[in-house]
Amino acid sequence: MKIISVEPIPVAYPEPNDFQAERYLCLVKITDDQGNVGWGECITQFKEANFATAALIDGLSELIIGKNPILNNSIWNEIKERMWWYGYRGGIASYALSAIDIALWDLRGKNLGLSLLEMLGGPVHEKLPAIASGHAHDSSIPKMAEQAQEWLSAGLQGMKVGFGKRGDAHLGYEHDRDVEYVHAMREAIGADKKLMIDLGYAIKWDIATAVKRVQAFDEDNIDWIEEPLGAWNPEGYRTLRSKSKCLIAYGEREWNVAGYEAILETGTCDVFGIDPGRVEGITGFTKIVSRIESHRRTANAHAWSSAIVSAASIAVSFTSSAFKLFEFKPLPNPMQNELVTQPLEHVDGWVYPPLGKPGLGIEVIDEVVDRYRQIKL
Ligand SMILES: [Mg+2]
Predict the structure, then answer these.
(1) Can you give the pLDDT at residue 16?
(2) What are phi and psi of 358, to 5 degrees?
(3) Residues near 169 by Cβ (< 8 Å), separated by ≥ 6?
(4) CATH number, span 3-113+364-371
(5) How far is the CA of 269 from the centre of ligand 1 (A)?
(6) How far is the CA of 164 from the centre of ligand 1 (A)?
(7) What is the CATH number of domain 118-351?
(8) pLDDT below 70 — which residues of the chain?
(9) How far apart are the CA of 226 and the centre of ligand 1, in A?
(10) DSSP state, residue 336
(11) What is the pTM of this model?
């Protein structure tokens, strides 16, 4: 049993959940001599990072071709060794390893006839609540309240909404508008639903602003505030956490165990965002989750790209009590709904353990991949 090819495929696609912005992912297709194919993905986000990652995957393919696809941990470690210089502390090298690792787990499962969740040892949850994870785009708060109700109409158990995003919502910039918005959303979705606010990179609150804003949001019982002070600000997060009621979420920009360890040591984060398409794949993801679980904190999959990362994220979310829910994009989009024969869905607001289908349990459609292939920088 041998791997015979490794093909990086940068893709570009319009994202309806992000005001039709063009977004970028690097996929990888790994094929073995048994005719099995494994798919991986990393969430590069920008076109230049996409091509750089594809070049790294191309270079790393010499460590993969000819290897037994069952021995994916050995390959993961060999790639880590190779990255010692250009991947220290993370960066684009982590994207390349992430995509390769996800594809290798998929391939391993297809060769063994086991689902990823079976290979990871099985679920600890019977089901997980599903929520909508979207961006607000409209200038009218009543209209956004209507949209929130639409998002939740299929039974989703709450919503996380991004501030500081594209479109006309203008959220994250003015105290009164933000508070009015959060209040309107709470009224629209009801007291029993989860409500989280996620600050985009464009929002640069200082500590005092964050405290004032989050205390006001607390009046409407938000469940958590995500990245209100960016990726790294232990002092600010310590202050905010001591003065607010909701949970503090961040971490999604870290690359590996060392990054998450650094945040855990500060004791300032309740909910850790983690993306297998960034944190050295499923292998990296599970290492991080075990640390978060032992610190009795919450882990939350940052699965906002393709069905490949979502499938990996759902499986890992079922392996640990640290996970409490799973996020779905509210609007149909190419990388979730066109890419695979059976899009991943919740059932009346619940997601169930993905067992029974080998590997990631999804079937990627080659023609769709070709349709979105990124040809030029
Ligand atoms: Mg986020």
Answers:
(1) 96
(2) -65, 150
(3) 135, 136, 137, 138, 139, 144, 163, 181
(4) 3.30.390.10
(5) 13
(6) 12
(7) 3.20.20.120
(8) none
(9) 6
(10) I
(11) 0.98
